[in-house]
Amino acid sequence: MKYKGIIFDLDGTLLDSMSVWENVDRDFLLENNAVYTTDVSDVVKKMTIQQSAEYFRTQFNLPHSCEYIINRIEEMVSEQYCRHIPLKKGVYEALKKLLESGIKMCVATATYNSLVNAALKRLGIYDMFEFVLTCSDVGSGKDKPDIFYKAAEKLLCDTSEVIVVEDSLHCIETAKKAGFFTIAVYDEIARNDRAKILEISDCCINDMSEFCEIFFNLNEV
Length: 221
Description:
Shape: globular
Strand content: 5-15%
Largest sheet: 6 strands, parallel
Distance between the termini: 9 Å
Radius of gyration: 17 Å
């Protein structure tokens, strides 16, 4: 088998949750009487939780510690992850088929550990993964390949044996440059990057209902 492991992003790839983060950036800044612009979310999505907290604190001169900012944002989105955010189309069925076929899978995400675990357990897919790895665990965002290399290592696979599945352009760029085969999953929030994503990813799908056919065809080549 050519590809033995899969690294899945979480938000926008497995979960229909990207709008939650765009909204919380806006709501948090408005709560602190700071002016929100749409480019804020584009900036912080490339950062770790710690880096984004520092960015908010310094960029907007907030009278809060980074610890306060981290805890407050987690509090603001917790309800969504614990109760409401759904899986994207075709996710459960695809993961079930991959698991039954003995494919090793993990989640690599910039999201808070507590939120990841709460959502995956509620949606019944937590035990399908070998592990969850966050940017906070490795100390860098997805603008660097550390999280992908660490995930491959924990899967006991070489880079050439792992597929990275992402929805965001900067993540796909990072994984691609690091030597991983990349499959892009469309998410509406990344629509402005669609042309570039199509250009640089090895494969692009509309949703996860298309994933298994492509994955098993790749392993037959």
